[in-house]
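Section handout, structural biology tutorial.
Before the tutorial, make sure you can parse a SMILES string by hand: atoms, branches in parentheses, ring closures as digits. In the record below the ligand is pyridoxal-5'-phosphate, and the chain has 398 residues. In the tutorial you will relate the predicted structure tokens back to the input. Do not try to memorize them.
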Amino acid sequence: MAAIEPSARIGQLRPTAVNSILAEVRALQAEGKSLISLMRGEPDFRTPAHIVEAAQKALRDGRTSYPDNRGEPRLREAVRLKLERDNGLRYDPASEILVTTGATFGIHAALTAVLNPGDEVLLPEPVYDAYYSPVLLAGGVVRAVPARIAGGRFVLDAEAIDAACGPRTRMLLLNTPWNPTGTVFSRAELERIADVVLRRGLVLVSDEIYEAITYEGHQHLSPATLSAEVRERTIVVNSFSKTYAMTGWRAGYCAAPPAITQAMFLVLQQSSRGPATFVQDACTEALTASQDCVAAMRDEYASRRTAVLRALDGVAGCRMLAPEGGFFAMADVRALGTPSNDVRRALMRDHGVVVAHGSAYGPSGEGTLRVSFATGGDTLQRGLERLRAGFAALRAVE
Ligand SMILES: Cc1ncc(COP(=O)(O)O)c(C=O)c1O
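Predicted structure of the complex:
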């Protein structure tokens, strides 16, 4: 009998950069090669004990039936409190907050709720490449907006966003702090971007999952705080994954005006129906208990960031773009004169260290490598040593 044919819709999708690199990593490991990975965005912290305990207690208390599909009322109230406390945003938990299965589902719900077939979505590039497929699945068309390196950071010009707009452009998907670049948009930058959003009548999806991890005075600002008009056009997407080291719990939330929250709720109701009830209780604990655990993780990321910059900046053709937020550092290796995917492969095969190549995040990422410090300790130290040796060797054969 013939095998089941996947749909034409699925035929458009492609694996993420991380998955493609992982396939190469596994093949090399199967040959017996020892590799150190500075590639993934997976925090090496355990979920803080009080959050784990809240889940265990919820399980013991029998909190195992279907959740409220909008999100358990206590969690929506905790999200309301958090948005006001941390972001200065006011949302009604009854009609403007939706609990989702991670930011991944929040983005999917936002796209599906807003896009008509053929609507264009602007993706600033270098782009977190897992944004592509949900746009296509929702019937949208991707329009890249190239960023450029200036003053030691990736800069996104409002003019470039404006220039990418056409009659079918409907949405801008912004990520601040920005994976992979490490840029945290300033108020002035966000204001210029928001001007374009309003003038062009776009919907702004604001992915804020790295908000808690910022450095050296850079502070996360949600674009929804800029004005009532911008808030009306914005869908805030957030998650517990990075802030609380809860990637495997699959929990996040969105905040948006009532009509769009309702539309996203319909998407959710017909698909995931939200995170498990006991997981939602743990998330309530995460948001309402002391935030000291978040500060402690941020401090640790800050010292890892310093270690990465010290180890790599100025080494044999490598200039580091000091990240303003998140746990990725971009290495500018344009001076090596070799495509970033070739540099990545050489580092992996010849020096046993895995990073992501910038071109995986679109042509504007060419000439860079993304180095993750989501994992620290010995892995980070040994990985950095291998990178230094690798850059020196690549420089020597130029
Ligand atoms: C920019 C960005 N958005 C969304 C996600 C996915 O988040 P979640 O685990 O909440 O689905 C990631 C994960 O790496 C990310 O980097």
